[in-house]
Structures are given as C-alpha cells and as structure tokens.
Amino acid sequence: AFDVLVIGGGPAGASAAIYAARKGIRTGIAAERFGGQVLDTMGIENFISVSHTEGPKLAAALEQHVKDYDVDIMNLQRAEALIPAAQPGGLTEVRLANGASLKARTVILSTGARWRQMNVPGEDEYRNKGVAYCPHCDGPLFKGKRVAVIGGGNSGVEAAIDLAGIVAHVTLIEFDSQLRADEVLQRKLRSLPNVTIVTSGLTTEVLGDGNKVTGLVYKDRNGGALHTVELEGIFVQIGLVPNTEWLKGTIALTPRGEIEVDARGQTSVPGVFAAGDATTVPYKQIVIAMGEGSKAALSAFDFLIRSVPV
Ligand code: FAD
C-alpha cells in the first residue's frame, strides 16, 4: 500500500507527489493524462519567475521533476471509485477503470476541471488561436484588440469587466434573455463605455482565416436573424466543470461538484485530501494549484505521523 496516493497529474498532483516523496514515504500518482490542462495551453506568462513558457514544455517539466523522485507513476489510468477506510488508520481504496485497485493510507484528489465548450464549428480549430477560456491567463494577449465573452453569468461578466480594461472593445453574448450575474457586476459592466451587451444570443460559429479568429456568428433567438461580429478573440465563460463525477456520494461536494476542502486541503473523509481546480479553492490557476498540491501533501504527511496504522 502507498502512504500517499495522488489521483491526477496536473500541477496540483505533480506538486503533491513531489512534496510527499521528499518526506521519504511511499508515494504513487495515477493520472488519466499526465500534465492535465497545461497540455492544452499555448503560452503561459503568469508562471511566476518564468516570463514565458508553453504548456507542453511545462507539462514535460512537471513529469520530469516527479521522476527525479521515487514515485510510482501510473499514467493513462482513470480512477472510477473511492472507497474510504473502514476504520481510522485503515486503508483507502481507489478503483481504476482497468479493473485494478490501489490502496493507500492517505489519498490526495487532484483531478482538475474542464471548461465547458460551445461545441460550435471553428471552436476546436481556433482554440489557442483566438478562442480562449481564461481571462487572467490570456487577456493581455488581446491588448487593444476586439473580443467577445460568451456567457453572462458571474464569470462571464467578471471576465468582460476585466477585459474591458485591456482590450479595445468587448461584446458580451448571453444566451438567456437577461444576464445572470450579480446585480452589482451588471451595473459595473453597463457603466463601461467599450462594452456591448447582447442577450438572447446563441453563438453558432467561430470564424477564422485559417490561422486565427476573425469573428463569430450569433443567432438572435428572437426572430432567428444571424449576425456577424468582427473580432480577434473569444473568451468562452459558460462554466468550469470539476472532474469529480466519480466521487459523488463518497465525499462532500458543492452543488457545482467542487470538492469541499478546509484550509489544509482536508476533505470530508479522514485521510483524504484534495487540491487544485477540482476543489472549492477560488481562482483556478497553475501557481495556485501547485501551492494547494504541496499543502495537501504536507497535510497528508501530518495525518500519517499522527495516525496508527491498523
Ligand atoms: P488539471 O490541470 O486539470 O489536472 C487534472 C489531472 O487529473 C490530469 O492529469 C487529468 O488527466 C487527471 N484526471 C482527471 N480525472 C481523473 C480520474 N478520474 N482519474 C485519474 N486522473 C484524472 N493557468 C495559469 O496559471 N496560467 C495560464 O496561462 C493558463 N492557461 C490556461 C489555458 C487553457 C486553455 C486552460 C484550459 C487552462 C489554463 N490555465 C492557466 C488554468 C490551469 O491550467 C489550471 O488551473 C491548472 O492546470 C489546474 O491544475 P490541476 O492540477 O488542479 O488540474
């Protein structure tokens, strides 16, 4: 059995594995896709102390750093069920999709999240070529340009307010007949001179010139007329979905599916910790996920030295 078993191989999981292994305890990491969301990222300019890097490069460095230690890496393995220890000090079990079962004295869940997509023509083709999901990450790339934000919930309206301070113009497109964001955010948004708000708009296509985004098409849901907006960037803000479906009913999740953790990364199940985008910790970013992953590993170590194995 492992002392610490990490599920998920993104920034949070890699940090957790390194911090655990540095304590000289038996550490394993199982990940569906080592690298996580970082693999889908092009330029990264807010990984502090590294002015610029690229996702695949950072993902390879994460894996290499884990390999510097005695960590059992199980890549391309999807966890399907978590079975809490039957008694304090007992072993927690994680069942994998391949039928195998892993046992550990502590488990760190770091399965991350995924951005909900529009699923319209052009979105895949122009991802990272104008189609973006993270305003904190990619906003500055569109300085002085025209962008759209898709989604009028809190995250969409926050993104539009944030971007309006950087870009030339923001078109916010909401599917519903009204924005769903908090009133105070809506008021702020409406006060900005370079924002156009479209409600009852369904984005139907991302347009591009083969290399980058040049516009989008949306349908007015009242009447069905199609409109084209010329722009350079599209920020999709229609939801971040935690990869926690497999944990439902086992540990406490919020209604949105985020794993509830305390300040030490402890979940509702003793010996089970969590870190990164899959949790309730606000602001989903690489440096935050790394900090939370190391914190969860230190908490797991603290748990181990205080518990008596059975
Ligand atoms: P993830 O990176 O999502 O990793 C989750 C891991 O868990 C993966 O290995 C996955 O395969 C695995 N997994 C999931 N389910 C299971 C399962 N059931 N069993 C086993 N393994 C599982 N942040 C920045 O700070 N700067 C940026 O510039 C930036 N740009 C971004 C650009 C894009 C396009 C995207 C999508 C995100 C960007 N982010 C950026 C956000 C950043 O990538 C995330 O905050 C960060 O990767 C979260 O790390 P994590 O380890 O919590 O989760």
Task: Summarize the structure in words.
With 310 residues, the protein is α/β, with parallel strands linked by helices. It folds into 2 domains: 180 residues, 3-Layer(bba) Sandwich (FAD/NAD(P)-binding domain), CATH 3.50.50.60; 120 residues, FAD/NAD(P)-binding domain. It has 6 helices and 19 strands. α1 packs parallel to α2 and α1 runs parallel beside α6. The longest helix is centred in the last third of the chain and has 21 residues. Bound molecules: flavin-adenine dinucleotide (FAD). The site of flavin-adenine dinucleotide has 39 residues, from α1, β2, β9 and α6. Keywords: Disulfide bond, FAD, Flavoprotein, NAD, Oxidoreductase, Redox-active center. It comes from Azospirillum rugosum. Belongs to the class-II pyridine nucleotide-disulfide oxidoreductase family. Homodimer.
Small molecules held by this entry: flavin-adenine dinucleotide
Gross CATH architecture of the largest domain: 3-Layer(bba) Sandwich
Largest sheet: 7 strands, mixed
Calculate the mean pLDDT score and round it. Answer: 97
How many DSSP helices?
Answer: 6
H and E order: EHEEEHEEEEEEHEHEHEEEEEEEH
Protein name: Thioredoxin reductase
Domain FAD/NAD(P)-binding: 2-293
Subunit structure: Homodimer.
GO molecular function, one term: oxidoreductase activity
